[in-house]
Amino acid sequence: MTVKTLPNGRWKFQVDGSSVISGCPSFALTLEQTSEQTLSGVFADGRTAALKKQ
């Protein structure tokens, strides 16, 4: 997994699972802080994601 800091308070997470274990998925997710308790973002394939602090 690699994490890159992008401009405007965003982060890009890249997981290259298939390069470690054959058949494992690889994916990329870009997140940004949308509130004090939430990170929201989009996977490279267009799916959305939200991480909420509880």
Describe this structure in words.
- The chain has 54 residues and is mostly beta strands.
- 0% of the residues lie in helices and 61% in strands.
- The chain contains no helices and 5 strands.
- It has strands at residues 2-6, 10-16, 26-35, 38-43, 48-52.
- Strands 1-2-3-4-5 form a 5-stranded antiparallel beta sheet, with no helix packed on it.
- The mean pLDDT is 92.
How would you summarize what this structure contains?
By secondary structure, this protein is mainly β. It contains no helices and five strands.
Query: What structural class results from the helix and strand content?
Result: mainly beta
Percentage beta strand:
over 45%
Which value, in Å, is the CA radius of gyration? 12 Å
Total strands: the figure is 5
The average pLDDT score comes to 92
Query: How is the main sheet built?
Result: 5 strands, antiparallel
The parts where pLDDT drops under 50 for at least 5 residues are: none
The strands making up the biggest β-sheet line up spatially as 1-2-3-4-5
Q: Distance between the terminal alpha carbons, to the nearest Å?
A: 24 Å
Helix content: under 10%
What shape does the CA trace take? elongated
- Please work out how many helical segments DSSP would assign: 0
Encode the helix/strand succession as letters: EEEEE
